[in-house]
Amino acid sequence: MKVVLLCGSPRPNGNTSQVITECAHVIQEHGLETEIISLAGKKIESCTACNRCAAEGNCVLEDGLSDVIDSIRGAEGFIVASPVYFGTARGDVMAALQRIGMVSRSTDRFLTWKVGGPIAIARRSGHTATIQEMLMFFLINNMIVPGSTYWNIVFGWNPGECWKDVEGMNTVRVFAENVARLIAKISS
Questions:
Q1: Domains by residue range for the chain, with CATH
Q2: DSSP labels, 120-152
Q3: CA distance 187 to 137
Q4: Phi, psi dihedral angles at 147 (to 5 degrees)
Q5: Do 10 and 40 contact (CB within 8 A), yes or no?
C-alpha cells in the first residue's frame, strides 16, 4: 500500500517540502510506502482540453506529469501540499490537479476511493481559501478525505519556520495518520 505525496513548492527544502516529508514519515510509521514527488524545477502546463487522454490513457503534454499520474494510479492514497500565493494555491499545483483529474475522469477513474487531501502552507493568511480550492479536486473525483484536529494548514515563511507552528504540524501529523489508518482499514 502506497501514498503519493505531491509537494507543490518551487523550493526543494522549503516549508512545504518539510511538511510533506513529516507526513511521509508518519505514514511510513504505520507500515505504508510513500513516494514524495516535487514540482520544484518542473514546468507544469495547464490542461488544453484536447481530450486525447481518453484515447491515449494518459496526458499527452510532455512535461513529466504523466509519470506523476502513473505513480498516483498505482497508489491507494494521494496528498497534495501547496504554498499559498496571493490567497490561493500555486498555479502549477492547480494545473497539475486539473490535468490529473481530467485523465482520471476520461479513463479508468483511478482516483475513485483513493484516500488523501490537501495541505496549505503560508506566512500569514489565505490558508482556508487554498484548502477549499484544492479540496474541490478531491471531492469531485470521488476520493475519501479524512479529517484531523483542525484544518490542514501550517504557518511559516522562511524555510524551517513551519516547525514553530506546533499546532499546525500536529494537525498534519494526525491527518497523515488518519490517511494511513483509513487505507489500512479499507484494504483489510
A1: 2-187 (3.40.50.360)
A2: EEESSS-HHHHHHHHHHHHHHTT-B----SS-S
A3: 23
A4: -90, -170
A5: yes
pTM above 0.85, yes or no: yes
Q: Is 47 left (phi over 0), alpha (psi -120 to 50) or beta?
A: beta
Alpha-carbon gap, residue 148 to 29, rounded angstroms: 18
Rounded CA-CA distance 122/15 in Å is: 9
Place of cell 483511478: 110
pLDDT in tens, 125-184: 999 999 999 999 999 999 999 999 999 999 999 999 999 999 999 999 999 999 999 999
Cell 491515449 belongs to which residue?
56
- Other CB atoms within a 10 A radius of the CB of residue 171 amount to 20
